[in-house]
Amino acid sequence: MKYFKILLSVALVFTMCSAFSLKKKDKEKPVYAFGVSASFTDTVIYYTNVQLLDSVHLDKNGFLPQRETYSYQLKNYLEYQRNQPNRMCMIYFSENKKKLDKEFTNLITKYKKNKSISLELLTVDQFHFVKPEND
Questions:
Q1: Alpha-carbon distance values, 109 to 81, 102, 117 (Å)
Q2: Cβ atoms < 10 Å from Cβ of 86
Q3: Shortest CA distance to 51 belongs to which of 99, 135, 123, 133?
Q4: How far is 82 from 128, CA to CA, in rounded Å?
């Protein structure tokens, strides 16, 4: 009976320890992004709304994989579809939509304060980010 109690205690401790060490992997959070394009020779700032990036997840360091590709997508759209060469394009991204919406609002408000700059929204119908083919 003594050995049975010891064996049962060891089994219980082993079960409890293994239950805590086998964490369920959290579902990866969706990634949201918006883009902004400016030029040193033009007073128009192009920007997109916050968009959900399809099937994209941040890497272990919190960076967006191939983030430069998303910037080039916006740059290429403006150069070839809008005939706006030599633009600098930036992408802002986050897994937290509320945080990104706040950053979006702050950035647009900052640009609106400058009366010499005009803002132009690129709707999702006009431009949307696409996941790069070669992951």
A1: 27, 10, 12
A2: 11
A3: 123
A4: 14
Among candidate residues 101, 90, 91, 97, the one with its CA nearest the CA of residue 32 = 97
> Global pTM?
0.76
Percent of the chain with pLDDT over 90: 65
Q: What is the CB-side half-sphere exposure of residue 6 using CA atoms within 13 A?
A: 3
Question: What integer pLDDT is reported at residue 71 of this predicted model?
Answer: 95
Q: What distance in Å separates the CA atoms of residue 133 and residue 59, rounded to the nearest whole number?
A: 17
106: which residues sit within 8 A by CB, 6+ positions away?
none
Residues constituting the chain: 135
What the block records as the tokens of 75 is 């740059």
- What residue segments make up the domains of the chain, in order of their start? 31-122
Task: Tell which residue, 4, 62, 2, 3, has the closest CA to residue 28.
Answer: 62
